[in-house]
Amino acid sequence: MTRPARLLALVLVAAPLAGAPFAGGAARAQAAADAPAEAGGAALGAAERAALGIETDAGAALYAQGRADALAFRLDDARRAFRRLGELEPRSTAGAYGLESAALWASLAAEDDAALDRFYVLNDSLADLADRASTPAGRLAAATARLHRAIAMGRQERYARAGLAFRDACGRFRDLDAAVGPDADFGRGVCEVAAGAIPRQYRFLARLLGFSGSVAGGLERLDAAGRGGGALAAESVIGLAISDATLNERRGGGVARVEALADAHPDSPLVAYLEGYLLLLDRRAEDAEAAFRRARAALDAPGVTDIPLVDANLGVALFRQDRFDEARELLEAFVRTYRGPSLVAQSTLMAGIAAEMSGDRRGAEALYRRVRARRDYDSDVSAEREAERRLEAPMTASERALLLGQNAFDAGRYEDAVRVLQPIVTGADLPALDRAEAAYRTGRAYQATEQWADALRHFKLAIDNPGDPLAKWGPWALYHTGEVYEAEGQTAEAREAYEGVLDNETEFDYHKSLEQRTRAALERLGR
């Protein structure tokens, strides 16, 4: 599972985030106009009450309060509200669903197996209660319970069991009737996005399990669910935003939607964290830093459950602004205290690079030696490989310039990126690997500013001489070549480039992530 897939999974299990429909266009202003009311005790709409099976006004008020507390990550308070709801309306699945969701969030925020064990108990209870119900709300809860179970098992790398649970969930969502309302499209959208994004090496298993669908089709369903006003509307919008950012090159305006959601809920550390993550993907490092700092301030309030990954991502935002000492301090603190595997290898590597950029080669070497791929994820494996390479010798002047050029691009300073990287592209006496990276990153900067001819020229340099068959520069340059052709309306040339990417079976850096993106791109072209 790639990092985007993990984050998408984390997002989609949010204990009801904002409840009210969150529709909107690509522009932030329009998204803000459509944003839900503040969730602190806001009343449920009729569609939400029906989807949740809540019968009384008192029950609806308790659910709204639990939802508001969950959004603020006051998970203990949320649990109390959901328990009271369960006592008030024992036939409804709403209280059990809230408790189960809060348990899953608590476990995933800290990657704690003991907390996951508690989740499984509540998940079994929800599934049993939902299976006994003969209402549309019960059938929706039963399907959602199976989806949550699949996510939890996937996070524990219990992939066979996760696949079975996911198949069960997708089948249940597929069979939901019109009485369930728009929330059926939430689960169907998740299933289609997942099916369309499965890497090649797992597709045979997906076919055996009966998974089918496309990223484009899944995005359409998530969009419909997000606009539909059901109980899972906000989860649908956030799932759409994450999928749009990681698989659709942000073409659907997902970043603006989550920014508007953050504006509507300024005290939510969860939404601020998701906003910061998306802003990093959107190459807006300063804005991402501000979002992560809002998340950290909210997490420091009494009674709020921590989200440790906020600090790791804040470190990334600082690193991209060349604030290496600050980044190193945060990243090292995260690695030192965090008990889960997520982001540890990447954060340790980045802390080492920050140390070396600040002149501390000895400290950098100590950090490089600690980088270990604890899972078979693109990001972990590539981090370990790069750490081993950096241990061989101190940074050269060209490697420092490459790092500064990369940061300039990742922070949206495209002219600075070209200025810093161009001397490396033309440096005939420099290593081929450095020149390939510089050509690739220069091409990306030109692509971002729609200077198509310059972008294609630099991508071709990286494709023709990548410097290392396991480096990402050649294959990813070919993918972005396809994007340039697609932007120019040259569909045949774009398709040829994308198909060339899929023809490459070498396990180069980030090959799984590239395959996911490329398949989504071919779907856009109507393959």
Automatic annotation (TrEMBL):
Superkingdom classification of source: Bacteria
Annotated Pfam families: TPR_6
Keywords (A to Z) from UniProt: Signal
Name of protein: Tetratricopeptide repeat protein
Species annotation: Rubrivirga litoralis
UniProt cross-references to SMART domains, sorted A to Z: TPR
Segments forming a coiled coil: none
Endpoints of the signal sequence: 1-23
InterPro entries: TPR-like_helical_dom_sf, TPR_rpt
